[in-house]
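DUF86 domain-containing protein
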Amino acid sequence: MVKKALVSEKIDRIVFCLNRIKRFQNMSFEEFKKDQDAQDIVVHNLFLAIQNLIDIGNHIIADDVFETPGYYGEIPQILSKEKVISESLALIFKKMISFRNIIVHEYSKIDLAKVYDILINGIDDINRIIDEIIKYANL
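Predicted structure tokens:
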């Protein structure tokens, strides 16, 4: 059974991270490209938000004794297969994990246009994943 307190705590962390970056949504891309502090804050908090989604996914998979993922990229597929999140959100979640891996392993190669696109358009996707997890976990 899913530990609701743990999932709630991680969701709270995700919401905190998203709130930290929302203040940069009013920047133009040109402004964002010139502001390294904004870039660092956005990238770091996106990383933390995605990592907490991964942690929640791993927790649900372990507690509900679903198939064990071999690597992070399998987590969304398993959650979709087990009806925790929709298939369309699983595809988005998988892309988020790929982006997280770029942050971790190739920080100097981060595409600022992609970061800005996530800042402007991707936060709703994270919230939609959270909403489906909340529904699944009966929070």
